[in-house]
Design a protein that fits this description.
Shape: globular
Number of strands: 3
Oligomer: single chain
Structural class: alpha+beta
Distance between the termini: 48 Å
Strand content: 15-25%
Amino acid sequence: MQRDMELIRQIAFEIEQATGDTLSTKIEIEGHSAEAIRYHCALMHEAGLIKAEPTANLRRGKKNFWISRLTSKGHDFVDAARNDTLWKKFTAKARETGVALTIEMTIAWLKQEAAERWDLGGTGSE
């Protein structure tokens, strides 16, 4: 299965809105299977975006995740990915270049774009 940054974004928004711990099987994103969501929760856990404990579904042999919260890095991702204009620019740029982007690269690019919009890069006139 290929990594889908848009799905990771949507899952992160769902976790941010959760009022308590949640099981990855409780997350539903239209157009995506439970397996795809479970796989992307695993990627998010490995990348340090979510605080989660793997759990085994013994009947199906599938690994789910008991998700307690976004990590600080997860909040950075959500905050950087929240702006739809920046997100669309990012995804267009990714398609245009054909470069496979990591979660770290995604966060860095979105933060840089936001900083430039707010002139936080120290390149503006003082």
